[in-house]
Amino acid sequence: MKDGKFLTLGIETSCDETAIAVLADGRTVLSNVISSQIDIFKNYGGVVPEIASRHHLENINGVLDESLAEAGVTLDDIDLIGVTDGPGLIGALLMGVSTAKALAFAKDIPLVGVHHLMSHISANYIEDTELEPPFMALITSGGHTEIVRVDDYCHCQVLGGTRDDAVGEAYDKVARVLGLGYPGGPKIDKIAKEGDPEAIHFKRVYLEKDSFDFSFSGLKTSVLNYINHEKQAGREINRADVAASFQEAVMDVVAEKAIQAVSQSGMKKLVMAGGVAANSRLRDKLGALCEKEGIALYRPRPALCTDNGAMVACAAYYKYKSGQRGSLEMDASPSMPL
Ligand code: KG4
Ligand code: ZN
User: Fold this and answer.
1) How far is the CA of 229 from the centre of ligand 2 (A)?
2) CA of 200 to the centre of ligand 2 (A)
3) Is 276 in the pocket of ligand 1 (CB under 6 A)?
4) Among all ligands shown, which has an atom nearest to the Cα of 187?
5) Distance from Cα 139 to the centre of ligand 2, integer Å
6) pTM above 0.90, yes or no
7) d(CA 282, CA 265)
8) What is the pLDDT of residues 282-295, one digit of tens each?
9) Which stretch of DSSP H or E encloses residue 35?
10) Among residues of the chain, what percentage have pLDDT more than 70?
11) Using CA atoms, how far apart are residues 142 and 298, in angstroms rounded to an integer?
12) Using one digit for the tens of pLDDT, what is the confidence trace for 297-312?
């Protein structure tokens, strides 16, 4: 406690970001420090799990010190530690979980493990301090694409998800073949602004009627085939047009299914979550559709969409408030259902 405020420390290391934040009373960010390994993985074209774990180990103490200093607090002021315990890269997750357990043990602070996707959803409580469940959430990230009905702060129900690639994964793969580098999502987002989304027609895959599942592997293959075909024919590829056309094919399906889920539920609130929620086209598309349908749309600022410690602290705060407690026996899990 400091100045009468309940302080939560949030630790996130599920992939390639070492991130630690301090939150006051569950929703106010006092610090949100992120040490990204993007510069390292640019050279590899993607995350190398073993290297990611090593860098978490090297960075985590520095990130912790910086986060506490920026918040103007010490570990003695912290009331709760929240940490991502899954899903994610196991070696990377273990760095955060071990750190959290060590701090909890040394300072006798309560500890709560949180699901990575619950954290992504919780970023919205920070962005919009009035938001309360129930609502529908569209989670799109590097590892997940899910439509989730959020009933309260700690419970949700998955209505559908991807059967193969996650949206972010498809973006990263297409970006790689276009030679745009890693991470591909922001690069495609940027270059697509200069392209024509109708230049190439890529098939939209909706799967069965009324299904909230997704499939993006066919689209990814269509893009690869298109590029190879053009190359073989000796034609130059317009990367902006390919990026814009690919993006439109993905986001048409994602946006339509999300709106359909909200409409069917009668909830009238849609929350965006995960790294791909930072995508400008998806934000605009959903913005327009929600306005037309009278649905309130929640879009965290891009820095809260991608992996960060603040969202972990927020999810931990609500889990703790609901009476749930972790223990020093806590383990990390690479795959964990919501
Ligand atoms: O949530 P996140 O930081 O990590 C995971 O939990 O996976 O999401 C990372 C993903 C990457 O695939 C990245 O390319 C994608 O989010 N991404 C974007 C944008 N910013 C990040 N995809 C499309 N447009 C963006 N602006
Ligand atoms: Zn994430």
Assistant:
1) 34
2) 30
3) yes
4) 1
5) 9
6) yes
7) 21
8) 999 999 999 999 99
9) strand 28-36
10) 100
11) 20
12) 999 999 999 999 999 9
